[in-house]
Amino acid sequence: MAAQIAQQLLNLITLGSIYALIAVGFSLLFGVLNIIHFSHADVALTAPFLALALMPALAGTLGGASSPAGFALAALLAVAATGLIGSVLYATVIKRFRNAPAMMALVATVALGIVLRELIRHLFPNGSNPHAIPRLVSGNLALFGTSVPLFNLVAIAVSVLCVGALFFILGNTRLGLHIKAVSQDRDAARLMAISPERIFRLTFFIASAIGAVGGLFFSGYAGIVRFDFSVDVGLIGFSAAVAGGLGSMPGAIIGSLLIAGIDTLVQATIPNGASYRLVFVFLLVIAVLVFRPSGLLGRTVVEKV
């Protein structure tokens, strides 16, 4: 019994860590641009496909494409490429809707997500079918008398490092100061010789790259990747950000852990729970928003008209 509880707790923390990598991207982009980037998860989930596409090209490097080192290199390149894709999509599409009514930006980013999914589906070999994806690490570690998958530990550790690095950048670097300045007052930032456009592009790069790490670990956790994985991952990541308070990154982390907790609990306790897990997840989100419309850590903004 204790071993089962420990295993479910490990699954909760692993899933929560992966969801948090997606959710903090939603919150970061909303906090800086005040735009809900609904195609954020679609961008993030291009990373596993990019990694799979790069593996044959890396054959003979670091022991071959099928080796853990070869896949790790492909994953790193995919993360960087996904960050660039996010920046390019901002510059070519999303930038046009930055000052448009919120509904226009919402429709545009939803449509952009569909375009990305369909491009993967038709351009990637057998893109409509699931593809097996290797894990960065395999094997188990004996911990407290229990066999713990190394993949889970690495996923948690890398997620903590990525989110910790993001918090460090925002709180302790010149770039972070510029991001905060642009998010609070773009005109004042321009007077201080800060280019909002440069900050927006860098913010998209950071959010997309962190999301790409989440996409790679989510695919590794599932063992496969599908072109439509981003639909569920995007809904869960966005819901976690909203439940925690859209624009609040600590809130996004708390929301991710709550959703992962419900997800894990339902699958562990309810017969055929995997089929109903999203029902309970979104019931939780609805309950949070009914009693706390601004989210758990969000702040209510009062505007005078």
Automatic annotation (TrEMBL):
Pfam families associated with the record: BPD_transp_2
Superkingdom in the source lineage: Bacteria
Cited InterPro entries: ABC_transp_permease, BCAA_transport_permease
Subcellular location: Cell membrane
UniProtKB keywords: Amino-acid transport, Cell membrane, Membrane, Transmembrane, Transmembrane helix, Transport
Transmembrane segments: 12-36, 43-65, 71-93, 100-120, 150-170, 199-224, 236-262, 274-291
Name of the protein this chain belongs to: Branched-chain amino acid ABC transporter permease
Organism of provenance: Methylobacterium planeticum
